[in-house]
Amino acid sequence: MRIDILTILPSFFNDAFSHSILKRAIEKDIVEIHIHDIRKHSTQKQKSVDDYQYGGGAGMVLTIQPIDDLISQLKRKRKYDEIIYLTPDGEKLKQEMCNQLSTYNNIILLCGHYKGIDQRIRDHLITREISIGDYVLTGGELGTLVLSDAIIRLIPGVISDETSALTDSFQDQLLSAPVYTRPSEYKGWKVPEILLSGDDKKIEKWREEQAEIRTKTRRPDILKNK
Ligand code: ADE
Q1: Residue nearest to atom 6 of ligand 1 (CA)
Q2: For the domain 2-152, what is the CATH code?
Q3: 87 pocket-lining for ligand 1 (C-beta < 6 Å)
């Protein structure tokens, strides 16, 4: 998969993809990340990328020209499955969407800033708008990182134990069961006996029950969608 990230803050991504699972995915050539500085594509003398809103109002708006030129340049080279704008008024990110996006070959992620981007970019160039939650961030960069991370880890070959991504919380609309590791007792805090029993069938049943209890108590809203 190739991910092109369009931003006015390219340095934000320095090192962001050089850790752990994401780093390995890039080293294994499963994923290519390309960071593009929107400002470099501005035809304005001062390389400006934003302007005042028509009609008045506080906050600057990202202009069309540099973003359009950059997207057109990328689209001339390859076909994109989605051109995504990260914005608080987009569709709220869910695991199901990540599953779908992880099957794509090429996606563009556009990070917004200031008051937003000129609506005509959204109307004519963007194919999907995604929010990572009901709160407003200073820009789309953090959203882009969250979305990229959530997608990349689902691509086959990225996580060595293929089953582990499938047993994540939210897959099957269930939260995950609690997990424990050694020691079996610490300061008198004990691991549930059943996990030490060696009885795989009973353990699986216990995990299912625990997942259901967790979901019912913490996130009954996702259970309702089942
Ligand atoms: N940009 C600002 N806030 C955002 C959010 N909640 N999700 C995605 N992009 C954003």
Answers
A1: 88
A2: 3.40.1280.10
A3: yes
The mean per-residue pLDDT over the stretch 174-202 comes to 97
Q: State the Cα–Cα distance between residues 76 and 73, nearest whole angstrom.
A: 5
Alpha carbons within 13 A on the beta-carbon side of 79:
3
**Region(s) of the chain under CATH 3.40.1280.10:** 2-152
Query: Token pair of 50, please?
Result: 């934003």
- How many A from CA of 92 to the centre of ligand 1? 10
The residues of the chain that CATH labels 1.10.1270.20 are 167-224
Class of domain 167-224: mainly alpha
Ligand 1 closest atom vs CA 132: 7
CA of 146 to the centre of ligand 1 (A): 10
Q: How far apart, in whole angstroms, are the C-alpha atoms of residue 205 and residue 210?
A: 9
Model pLDDT for residues 214-226, shown as the tens digit of each residue: 999 999 999 866 5
- Residue to substitute in 8, 136, 138 for testing ligand 1 pocket (most ligand atoms within 8 angstroms of CB): 136
What's the pTM?
Answer: 0.93
